[in-house]
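Following up on my earlier message about adenosine-5'-triphosphate. Here are the inputs again, as you asked, copied directly from the submission form:
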Amino acid sequence: MAWATPEGYFDQLDRWLDMEGVAERQRITLRMQQGRSGSPERSGETLINLRVADHRSGLGGRHLIDFTKPAGERLPMNRLKVGSPVLLSNEDRLDEGGMPGVVSRRTTTAIQVALDAWPDGKHFRIDLSPDERTRLRQHAAMGRARMLSGSQARLRDRLIGLDEPRFDEAPELRFATGLNPPQQEAVRFALSARDFAILHGPPGTGKTTTLAEVIHQAVLAGQKVLACAPSNTAVDNLLERLVPLVPSVLRVGHPARVFEALRGHTLDELVERDDSTKIVQEMYREAEGLMRGASKSYRSRDAHRRKGELYAEAKTLRQHARQLERHIVQQVLGTADVICTTMTIDEELLGDRRFDLVVIDEACQSTEPALWQAMLRADRLVIAGDHCQLPPTVLSKEAAEEGFRVSPMERLVGQLGERVYRRLTVQYRMHESIMRFSSDQFYDGELVADASVKERRLADLPAVGEAGEGLPVLEFWDTAGAEWGEEFEPDGHSKRNPQEAAWVVAQVKELIDAGLEPSQIAVIAPYAAQVRLLRNRLRIEGLEIDTVDGFQGREKEAVVITFVRSNHEGEIGFLADTRRTNVALTRAKRAMRAIGDSATLGGDPFYAELLEYFQQENAYRTVWELDDLLR
Ligand SMILES: Nc1ncnc2c1ncn2[C@@H]1O[C@H](COP(=O)(O)OP(=O)(O)OP(=O)(O)O)[C@@H](O)[C@H]1O
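Thanks, got it. Here's what our run produced:
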């Protein structure tokens, strides 16, 4: 997509963003309606029958409350991620409506929500709510970006593709990490950009490692850096790589995974450690005491006046506490060389801070409007990602068809080509035969497996040893002709394939019998219904079963893939987006097994080539070889 003017570009984006808002609200209304009849948790956007299990207070007097199921059982599969806006409702009084909050942490059995007030009730329900706040921030940022002038306007125009980006000569550098030559070249290239540069990181090529080095070099040169990514998990991954390199790195927001080593770098923790924070906490406590006092009933004649006074006093005290807290926060932020945050930036918190360099990781998972909050604070940008993996999620079909799923990185690579990006080509994850198909299809055959991984096999894992000698690196099982058909999940729209699921169960058992830990295995299915079916059939602690989308950015020793689609019409649905399959095919380090129906998949040229690749690699089998039990 190309635009002739900034106005045209922003008009289009404002429209798409509004369409997305409508689609999101429609989906939530539909879920609420379905919720009354069937099981509301099936949507993955609702959790019911929750209890308060624990709580603590966070910045700004917020309540951080942990909710669990009554017996602490696992929460059902859900899309409530850290940072997701939610509505918390009292199940006994649903008609009263919910209280807005944000998911601040999650585990398999608990979900923590940050709330401004304490919720009344015993039984709770959490619903994903439309992300209006993010949309408003994006509209506002784009509004400001329209009005820019001078050098910022020129940077804006270059990012829209209206002007040529400029590069200086690549600097000579001494690297802190043992980077390979394409990574070194990428760091030099990134630092030579006067406007922006792009790093293209195919699976396992050390994109985040390389970005961390870019940031480290910028800090060495005395620059201030804002490091962001679309999801909390991606921000944490970057933070994890930065901590050993840059001592003064700070994480704003709710980390998705709170590792001990990273916790000390969160803004909340750093503020909490500040001596003056004790005073703030004392002030909040005192204000709460006054409020409690005011809510008691008084018999005296001037009861109303007395109540009013207490409330007013509490309010003033809270205001003073907030002011002092803001001051501490700003002081802490001021000491950081690198600030890490999601791309939904808390404008109030960061104030008018600008950065010499803004780095965006996993940039292909964000839509265009998400770029502008970060851009407004940047002198220069480095954008990293892989546009050959999953694009951003867009709910509005119409906006998606018009081009809303094209991330800014994908657009810029398409518009400006090789002069704006460098590709990393040495990968540290996959056995060579697992890597090659993806490399040929998506990366011009440029990927090279590092010597340390090129021939890695399950048998090299100490716990597996000889038992793994016969286990193949690559295997595709064809169900053609076996009538292992797909079906709809009862009461649902998602597809599943019970016979493929039975095959998966057998594969997982074989891998575990060979000595693999369940946590070293992943089962990947493109459809949520197949994931649900498999989670029911394979209740093994540590084994991860998820959709492709849930596995982006992850890796496992062994991966089992079920393609699910099997029908006489040759319909492959969203498997036609081959980038989804690219993600699935590039998660395994030592062994990858897949099952699918070549009669259904093979009508698509991409899958026809995939099948041919398995044949060339002597990795093609058919379920007709299996004993009758499975059929
Ligand atoms: N130059 C290098 N030498 C040795 N190992 C490396 C090098 N660069 C990266 N790695 C290793 O490769 C793995 C992947 O690195 P990293 O997490 O940075 O990759 P990524 O490209 O961001 O991953 P993803 O595919 O999830 O986006 C890590 O285990 C990292 O330690």
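One observation from looking it over: Residues 178-180, 183, 201, 203-209, 428, 553 surround adenosine-5'-triphosphate (CB under 6 Å). Hope that helps, and feel free to reply on this thread.
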